[in-house]
Sequence to fold (262 residues):
Amino acid sequence: MTALDRYQELIDVVRRLRKECPWDREQTNDSIKANTLEEAYEVVDAIDEGNDEELSKELGDLLLHVVFHASIAEEEERFTLEDVERKIIEKLVRRHPHIFGEERAEDSKTVIQNWEALKKREGRKSTLDGLPLAMPALLRAYRAQEKASNVGFDWSDKRDVWAKIEEELAELKEAERDAEAAKIEEEFGDLLFSIVNYSRHVSVNPEDALRKAVKKFERRFRRVEETLAARGKSVHESTLEEMDEIWDEGKRAEARQSSSSS
Fold:
């Protein structure tokens, strides 16, 4: 059976579920949108873990959601799965004139600049149009800055960006001294935004970096809990000093393991 045969089989299975399964029949585009987002995050988790077996499964789950959403719309005669496929093919061809047309692009920077220019010609009024409001704020900040940078609105030297971070930090401290809640929130947001800006200049995706930092925190905190449990205690029965000691030992153990494996 070919990949195309499998794809048609998936479509047929989803359409049957929509007719015969009570739960599937009740769903709408709105009711499953959170599940779709969750599946996308699970794809990212599998990539971070370097787990190809999980990645193949999670990509299948995400593909299911594409077919599911389109099938719902198809039943309501809003658009068809064929419309979805046709539009993405047309967009890919249209936005890659250096492949399917006469234009030339020798590097990825030129490709991105051409992409933004093409989107403008398609009717977008602003370079920043198209950023989903539901996107995590950290990633949205990164993409907004990236889009602005693609049209030349950016610092050329990362030292200037670092100076902006220090400026925003000073303004946050000043707002904190004045104890103005709204101002503290505003300056904290400005500080985060400037840190995201710096991340671009050192080629770090801030969403990826923070996700990995959170994962590291969770791993180390769970070690604290497990060590205390082995001692017959819980975190509620322990002091900060005791938890800090276990935390630091965990960091040292990770450093030794990393050193021995390198």
About this structure: The longest helix spans residues 206-230. The mean pLDDT is 92. The chain has three domains: 3-92, 137-204, 207-261.
